[in-house]
Amino acid sequence: MHQEPSRRSILSALTFSAGAALAGCNRPAGPEATTPTGPADVTLRIGPVLVDIAKDHTISTIGYNGRVPGPLIRLQEGVPVTVDLFNETDTPELVHWHGQIIPADVDGAAEEKSLSVPPRGRLRYRLTPRPAGARFVHTHLMPMSDLNMGTYTGQFAFVYIESRNNLGRYDQEVFLATHEWEPFFTTAEEDEEGAPPPPPKPGEKPNGWEIGYQRFTINGKCLGHGEPVRVKEGQRVLFHILNASATENIQLALPGHRFQVVALDGNPVPHPQPVEVLELGTAERISAVVEMKNPGVWVLGTPRDDDRGNGMGIVVEYSNRSGPPRWIKPPKASWDYTIFGDSRHAPPPDETIPLVFGKINGGTGGFNHWTINGHSFDDRDQPRVLQKGRRYRLVFDNQTDDAHPVHLHRNSFELTNVHGAATAGAMKDVVLVKGFKKVEADFTPAMDGLTLFHCHQQLHMDYGFKLVFQVA
Ligand SMILES: [Cu+2]
What we know:
mainly beta, seven-stranded mixed sheet, six-stranded mixed sheet
């Protein structure tokens, strides 16, 4: 049998070695971390970067530490770290620690009155990472109609928070982040099946701008242009996959293999299950183990032929195998969160909060606006007050034809009902609510302070799809 490699050494060889060194994030917090002049545990430099996504194709964008994705940041759950943020751009920046339960001032969202990184300036603070699992860091600016800002750029990086609980036995760990490039405005709209949406009702304006992309990448490379994921027959490979898109919900498949899903948004699921096709709304993460028992050279990629042709995939190569990578169209799959949860009713909440999602069509050449309970977010809105220790049930009632990956900051929520099916035990921080569907999620506010709720589709968030809670 083959020698089992150390998972850490494989990881750094495969993916993020330069970045991990740059971030300096494997160093334990020493005494110097408490003095404002000493080196920080985590350093992110926000600045211009050129990304060679293909042999003949370079993207000019903004990234972290001169690379896209930014460095893998490994932290220990509950061990405080000092964070240094340097902004080498002319725009104030917000760095959001997605999926972490941390105070509002360091969470990195303007609506929570978080600290921002001044242009050409620096921001230093401490935070205590939690909970364990696959998290990430990304900009939280509102680019509105400027597609060279916000999550359209390369400002994203994996954060992996280690704990004593592991996700089972595996031989190597691989981090994959999807992202699209060269966004453009389009009037073409597709639903999940790739079909056009229904025409507007009489008296209603037509649909406004949507975003299309020219190039698609995993870990900053178009399919066939980066290093392959190198595996050996018999290995169990733990993939952590992040949808780091600004606006796209995606599916991914690895022909000839199945994904044993062990964690959603970094949180271990009650019932790991095998699936052929993964689905990730914007900002969702899936951790899944793949048993490598079908030697060959394969494409791990999107089932959408056009997008895969434009780069959305990565080669998985078994040792001693060569040749062109194989793709086989996977069976049509519909993603179901509930197979990973307990099929029981969660305990009743103390209070139910209905959140009805609505859309006001922008018309040709305009932007659609988005509403929650009939209201588009306004900076002057008073936050809705929640009480610590009370269990709230959020009812996401999507009365639009678009899918919305909705995200709650500074908390994890428990899925309790998906499309009418009761479920419990699956903890997440983003859930994709399909068109005209309803999802319920319970949470007990984890910390005091301002807490943002929003759609993670950048264009939806920017045009009204958010609200702020105040936990007291
Ligand atoms: Cu949305």
